[in-house]
Amino acid sequence: MAEQAEKKPDAAAARKPVSDKLVSTDPSTGKQIWSGKIGDAAAEVAAARAAWPEWAAHSNAYRIEALRRFANVVRKEEQGFAELIARETGKPLWESKTEVISVINKVEISIEAYGERTPQRRMEAALGNKIAVRHKPHGVLAVLGPYNFPAHLPNGHIVPALIAGNAVVFKPSEKTPAVGELLVHCLHEAGIPEGVVRLLIGGPDEGRSLGSQPGIDGLLFTGSARAGMALHKQFAETPHKILALELGGNNPLVVWHAKDVDSAAAMVVQSAYLSAGQRCTAARRLIVDDEDHEVLIAAIVKLIDRIIVGEPFADPQPFMGPLIDLAAADHVQEQWLNLMMKGGKPIRRLDRPDAETPFLAPALIDVTDIRDRPDEEIFGPVLQLVRVKDFDAAIAEANNTRFGLAASLIGGSPEMYDKFWANVRAGVINWNKPTNGAPSNAPFGGVGLSGNHRPSAAYAADYCAYPVTSSEADRARAAIADGLRDPNMQED
Ligand code: NAD
Fold it and tell me: CATH 3.40.605.10 occupies which residues in the chain?
């Protein structure tokens, strides 16, 4: 494990590699909590390639046992793991604990999903011939992780990749290397060979370098649409390599004449502000009936005013912590100012009590009158209110985005939900539920700019192995019936 030290307060720039080191800081305090050496993608890929054949040759049962041991190792480290996530991301401890539970649960979910999505099949063909469908691993897969769920999301690629028989080179976010390192440490502790899971420390440069290695057979990515597009370009000349992109969203939440206004308000707040809005599935746009929304907005504002924003270990626990770093908070503030300049009307402002820390207050802004609303992901605690004249306009507004990750309807009738479900373009569509908190045992992914049709979670098995169809017989027996000359006929 790399050195754990306490040093001087941070600036986001501290994460930029100075010489060959990467440092990680606690967003709440700005103190350095970790530092480690920037890795070499080529060396890590070479190590993984060397280790891969033996791992792939083991039985599936062998690999599953190894992953079950990994779940037990994480269970033993549960408290320390959660504390490290809280310290490195700023997420409240209660929320960090739920992330560790997700890491543990991912193992059984992936084992079941592997069985369901990539089962061996045998079929009978004509003349007693036998057909078999089996799956093979790709080889060495690169995994690039984001910072917002620094353990759970990369783990959601790594576990299914390992079960399928791949070796993995994992590059955690440059903002959360310590959690990435701990995740890999737990895998090794469980007896998964060091060559089979490699840790690559670094930032976008190392991500690009990893993506360009001839020795990888694919790349599994969770992160921003910007980086996803760059990787897509980078992979343009290697269409034979698997590329799974899980990207961001500009997610709509329609509340339509909800009877239980307090519950609706609670779901809006959960959707928009959990994890300080740093969730890919967070609601970014709240769409309501222009004629009927005042009571709802009043209930939401009442809740917003009660939200505790604080450091992750505070007692009582906060609802949300800081953003990941100063640069992220600056960026969200710029996006907010842009909305204000375009004519947005703040209902609750995006306050930043201390410019030297990345804590932001939850904000709500009415953007109905902005003509050219930017269709971008605001990865922070900002919810944009859009008032529309009828339900058709609500659906049109929900689809008024290039993204397509999550969408929810709260209220409405069963018929309205049917219409919403049929017409809204998204990979997660909920009714009377928040936009976030998708079940891990179902597929998870989006359309549009939110991904490239390689959904993760329960369908991750699909991109971790490829199907092989075989026609098989005990012995070779064949005769050619047509198109041959009669051997008894003389040629003149
Ligand atoms: P990011 O795209 O900045 O970084 C993600 C990873 O990619 C990091 O490891 C980073 O070092 C690397 N990277 C960045 N640019 C790269 C490039 N050009 N080439 C190769 N690698 C590169 O994302 P982030 O800020 O860490 O995470 C937040 C984003 O992730 C948000 O957009 C969020 O919506 C998205 N996200 C999506 C999902 C999902 O499942 N769809 C889940 C969580 C987060």
Answer: 39-247+451-471
The candidate with the shortest Cα–Cα distance to 357, out of 282, 250, 271, 276, is: 276
Q: Which among 174, 181, 280, 397 is annotated as catalytic? A: 280
Paired with 35 in beta bridges are 23
Cα–Cα dist 1/39, whole Å: 14
Residue 280 designated active-site = yes
Q: What ranges make up the beta strands (E) of 145-282? A: 167-171, 197-199, 218-222, 242-246, 251-256
Pick the CATH number of 39-247+451-471 from 3.40.605.10, 1.10.10.10, 3.30.160.40, 1.10.8.60: 3.40.605.10
Distance from residue 33's CA to the centre of ligand 1 (Å): 22
Among 222, 233, 402, 449, which is best to mutate for testing ligand 1, by the most ligand atoms less than 8 A from CB? 222
Which pTM value belongs to this model?
Answer: 0.95
Mutation choice for ligand 1 from 16, 91, 144, CB with most ligand atoms inside 8 A: 144
CA 189–ligand 1 middle distance (angstroms): 27
Share of the chain above pLDDT 70, in %: 96
On whether the 251-444 domain is CATH 3.40.309.10, my answer is: yes
Q: Tokens in use for 362?
A: 């939850």
Q: pLDDT of 451-480, one tens digit each?
A: 999 999 999 999 999 999 999 988 888 889
